[in-house]
């Protein structure tokens, strides 16, 4: 085993040509500037193979050899006693790398499907609500100036709904202890249509347009659903999940385009709301039965709203409510599939609510 | 016999800048003649090199100017002192004078001794890097991020070692533990910032004010870590700077950029590049860039004007088309038209302008950068680079990001292959002064005080 290499003494950039000879466990440098040199295998720092890049053999005195990558070199290093590291064997192999790719995809998918919601659910109760209140107040002020107008509902209806809302809150010990106490706001928004939403700071907003289409009991059923979002801290969980997804996507696509990241995060996160929506429905059903009312009230409300074909969702907690709603409105009118919509198929929700009422 | 100033066509006592300028122009003349097949006489080249050896740096120029002033030693090249590698100061002196002795005598390996253009080579391949990337990613996930430091070392090694100059590869020696430490620090700072921003704007401002003095220090240490862990032909690069220079570059000029609403940005960018290059050294010689703020401002000015021109052109074209089609078709067609316009604007014009800036800044910067007597030359082309950028972008989108490693390799290959070193003489002259010091302090020192924050 004998081959040519470039030798650098570690003190100058001058290049010397030497011959390498390997016997078991020993490396010999012939024609080195300081004469023949011998090294024990353990003294030689052998660089990892990196494609076609020259290999580097480092010596204890700071000198090094640079050798072109070749089959002969591999044979020489093997004679010397060198074995490739585990990671290098993984990286050198296409099937293994493709297996690694599949593992990464599966881990990512599992993390997204189960890990992230699980983590968010655990973290959500520990997020302080006070800054949420400030955030929600700011969002409320912004909307009040632009898209929300004061309510024109009769005083009698407002008082009735307020009473029902207070009872819903009082009957749920968790909500009664919700730090910024949940409050009901009546607003009118002809541009948006029938809607109701809850914000993480505890504000629940009911639109005149929604109340006008429903009986008081049905409107209360919708409010119970919204309180379900608050009880389960959906908006906070959503916030945690979207920031985490956003961070991962930004790290992955970071160099490509911010716009893509934002869009992707948005499209992916629609999925969460579906499950949360069903959770809130289930909560609403329980809250209604606690007041000896039927979960069917919520199903009725959904049916009525669907019939009017302008029900466009009720849980937009963020400041960009107006944009989201108008986008969804377009989709609903054109009968788009439920996948991209932030609300699960209404019929599916009605079916589940009916099942719940039967089991009660 | 001419004195060295006359060789360069300069009056005696001309400034260092004039010397460097004249040397570079002469070097280009030699290169040009060589490429045209009519090389100038070797003796002239040797005289030029001798002139640069005597005048190319402040200390040597002072010695030579003094010798010109005292008639007894006029025109005499100072004799090389005895070489005693045991003393660092003697080593430094020998480095100062080793070059004149070399060019005075006719060196045996004359093929490596004249003026030669060494193009940087790149031997990496997308498939190889993909395998490194995906295994790195998997191991990073399985170790909850801890492996990312080792992943960085493997990635840096792949890119460094596959970049070759004059047949020798660069190498990376970063210690993964130091990198891990740097990442922990960087992430903690980021976390503090993010949390304070969420809690209260006042806390956020306080956190920014507290952290901003630390930022230049972190950047400086991180540049030094990169330099000291990069080697070529067994010699490490080095990066020497003071805190004040880092603070001025990143904070003071950063504030200036803010106050001037971005007008000072090209200037700050130039200062950053100067900070990175002029403090970088290899084998006892400093990199030196002479790019000026004018160079940078021209690039940005053209980019802004061209970008706005493109924007206006698209709006006009869109309006004209819209008016022509508007009579025929409904508002949906108009919507689609506007969509396409925005698409073209973002997909083509923005990357085109950004690529223009990157290509021209790289060219202007490197073409005015030298290391010792050697000049860099950078000849990136906008068209070629834009083709790479846009196809990379499209393929990354189409493959949901899996093309990413190939994209990175293509960019690195193009950048390397369009950079060259115009070497005046041999590349053997670089010597290390601080090997002994580095070895004495050893790895433990690097562990305790050095870290790298990923930039």
Structure description:
The complex is a heterodimer of chains A (360) and B (455). Chain A folds into two domains: 2-91, Pleckstrin-homology domain (PH domain)/Phosphotyrosine-binding domain (PTB) (PH-domain like); 127-359, no CATH class. Helix content of chain A is 55%, strand content 14%. Chain A has 13 helices and eleven strands. In chain A, the strands form two sheets. Chain A has a seven-stranded antiparallel sheet. A four-stranded mixed sheet of chain A has the order 8-9-11-10, sandwiched between helices. In chain A, a hairpin with a 7-residue loop joins strand 1 (2-8) and strand 2. The longest helix of chain A has 33 residues, at 258-290. The termini of chain A are far apart. Mean pLDDT of chain A is 77; it is low at 255-264, 266-272 and 310-342. In chain B, helix 6 runs antiparallel to helix 7 (148-161), helix 6 packs across helix 16 and helix 13 (293-326) packs antiparallel against helix 14. Chain B has a domain at 4-106: Helix Hairpins (Orthogonal Bundle). Chain B is α+β, with helices and mostly antiparallel strands and 455 residues long. The longest helix of chain B is centred in the C-terminal third of the chain and has 36 residues, at 331-366. An eleven-stranded antiparallel sheet of chain B has the order 1-11-10-9-8-7-6-5-4-3-2, with helices on both faces. Classes of the chains: A alpha+beta (360), B alpha+beta (455). At the A-B interface, helix 2 and helix 3 of A face helix 6, helix 7, strand 4 and helix 15 of B.
